[in-house]
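TOPIC: backbone geometry
CONTENTS: sequence, structure tokens:
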Amino acid sequence: DGTVGANKNSIKIIGDHTDMYAQGYFAYDSKKSGGLTISHLRFGKKPIKSTYYITKANFVACHKPSYVNVYDMVEDLKPGGSFLLNCEWNEKELDEHLPAKMKRYIARNNINFYTINGVKLGKEIGLGGRINTILQSAFFTITGIIPKEKAIQYMKDAATKSYSRKGEKIVKMNHEAIDRGANEFVKVHVPEAWKDAVDNTTVKKVNCGDPALTEYVNNVLIPANRHQGDKLPVSAVLKMANGTVPSGSAAYEKRGIAIDVPEWNPANCIQCNTCSYVCPHAVIRPAVLNAEEVAKAPKSMKMKDMTLMPGLKFAITISTLDCTGCGSCATVCPGMRGNKALTMKPMETQLASQEGFDYGQKLSPKPEVAKKFRPTSVKGSQFHKPLLEFSGACAGCGETPYAKLATQLFGDRMYIANATGCSSIWGGSAPATPYTRNEKGYGPAWNNSLFEDNAEFGYGMALANDAIRGRLADYVKEIQAADDASDTLKTASKEYLDTAESSVANREPTDRLIAELQKAAKGSGKTAELAKKTLADKDYLAKKSIWIFGGDGWSYDIGFGGLDHVLASGENVNVLIFDTEVYSNTGGQASKATPMGSVAQFAATGKSTKKKDMPGMFMTYGYIYVAHVAMGADYNQTVKALTEAESYNGPSIIIAYAPCINQGIKGGMGISQLEEKKAVAAGYWKNFR
């Protein structure tokens, strides 16, 4: 929401316009949206040499109301200090929402308590969720470090300097935010009863079904997300000493960070699944229910008759607590007769929809639906669980929809080598893991290496997998020829070998072979020994889909030599490049993917050289599958490119246009899919495969 930037401005204002010294320390987590930032600001008449975070504060501000139930927001506040909370609650609602521990501390320590509805003001002004200048203005007024009138003028001068490049309208909106923030906060009358407030909630242990994941979530994820990771004992992480962590832990964060979330109106829905297709965080999904499941469904769960599937009901389910509120789903929704099926509503009004989403995840598979709607079609793909869900990517991220779709198509057999960058931060940044597993326990095996050698890293994974599978295939051939092997084992062996090079067809024969091997291993003789040897590496039996993920900074620049070497090798690997046309993770620096004339960091006057023609370079080899895609411009072309690349028995590369927050899209990231459509329509980006 711009808080860190505003606090840096505050330091400059105080340092430049008073005789006080200033210092700032800033702590961040790795979430791209709704992430925790803590700004530690010090001001004083003497030079400040403190080398540690503040533990005795005169002023604390909480800019996210959901934080009051996650962190100890006031534990570092001095008696008599000031606490500013950004929320929409009145005094009665504060009593309902604030935890008892916080109420006791505020009342017993004579804390001056203020609230401000920054989100409401931001919407009225036109700034949306960018509430930084509103809260900054309230800070100066409450603390009185600088006289109010002077502080307002200094802030306006700073805003003019910061935003003048974005136009007069943006500057005026920030000036209005400063004026209103200075005057529209409210001092809360703290009830005497708060001194003896009683806790009526208990922290429940999470049961994830999988013992390893349950232990990880309760002992590592939850404490770390409460900002208590430094207090974890070594024993809590000792099982992860080899670098592996259980997948699927992001599903248990339930951060509740969105301001507005989608509400589904069944009457206007044409059941196209486009909303699910474009959702960057996999929080909106179709669900199909039979009569028995309908009878057991939560009363709050909306549904309608499913098109072309008599006897089944269709629902769009929304995970309110995982949504980031980007609005991509509502933007692309075609609706019916001009009326959209999705509209954005305040999160507080949509909490009941979480129950429907949770129920939808427990429904039985519907083979008849997969038969009717091809899993490799836009609509059909969305009936498959995304094996990338609830990542920490930016709201409206242009990268994650491609990766999520890949997991819906091939996730149960994917190996992913991920270059360091945005995709490694939203893909596997501790403590949460958004890559997950399906109901059978299959899911992507994800790994992250250095920035510069990701292609080689993925290539090594492919070669190692080939070597192990080659050895296992030799064992299976021996079993097939063995005199003491049963007929059913020989049949299973033949089916396995016949489909060994098809990742789509090989899964079921592999499962049947493993079942027969487990029976054979209980006996004695040559076949039993071969069965035991094969079962020792049974996870490698099924044909894997090798993927190499990364951004344009890695692929066009730093890792290009390795990428060229790997694709030229002819090995059956698939490369997916998220082309944001800048170094996204480090703040928007120009890369060789940045087009001529674009303004970016290190190219303040516009980039002087044209964009590298990467697809053209790889097409010259003649045996590399090359695709150039923009999802928002052609949903079908994107899914076809992914399936064709995966099925091609050789190297493939897909370069996907991914709008990024660093591009400063005027309408916000909620229209990223429309930006992709406009880019192709204008000839700026060319779709081909």
Summary: The two ends are 39 Å apart (CA to CA). The CA atoms of residues 236 and 592 lie 43 Å apart. The mean pLDDT is 94. The longest strand covers residues 77-86.
